Amino acid sequence: MTFRRGALGSPETALFLGPLLFGVYGVIRLLDGIDGVHGPGLAWTTGHLCFLAGLPLYVRGFGLMRDLAGRRDRWAGAALVTSVAGAFAFAVQFGVDVVCGLLANDHARMSELSDHFGSLPGAQIVFYIAGPILFSLGQVALAARLYRWRALPLWAPCVLFASVLLPFADKDLIPLAAALMLLGYSPLRRSSASRTAFTRA
């Protein structure tokens, strides 16, 4: 399966728009937390919707990276599955956050509703712990495989690795993490990348 231009635009563009929307979410989150409280409200909902909109773009970009590595690269295939599973978990997590924000009148009620979902068997581990880790590890592994095939310079997976660590350290660093992602993916977004995509069967 190859990922070419479609409803979400080219995969190269998706690798720009996905991190960009992630950065927008991070900036809105910072503004929303100026008063010391995150959500509910317009900023909470808008920021989360931005990140949700970016997830299918990430997946499309991950598909391009898998194509560049070649179908015989089983490690790249496993990394794609890992990153997509993480994206799905993120979608559920952020979807729940949006719904809770819309249903709640204040932060305490929103947290209560969110805790109800998080208390479901396995929800905390799958959607709040494993999901973000899989999403992060998958994309770094894809970048590492592309370095293996000389489709990316060494600095690119290193930058992406740093970018995925930042939000785990402090969510306020999400805008910086997004900027690093844009930098790390920049070699794949160049027009020459799409023209020289590998066709290893």
TrEMBL record:
Transmembrane segments: 12-31, 43-63, 75-105, 125-144, 151-167
UniProt keywords, alphabetically: Membrane, Transmembrane, Transmembrane helix
Protein name: Uncharacterized protein
Organism annotation: Streptomyces beihaiensis
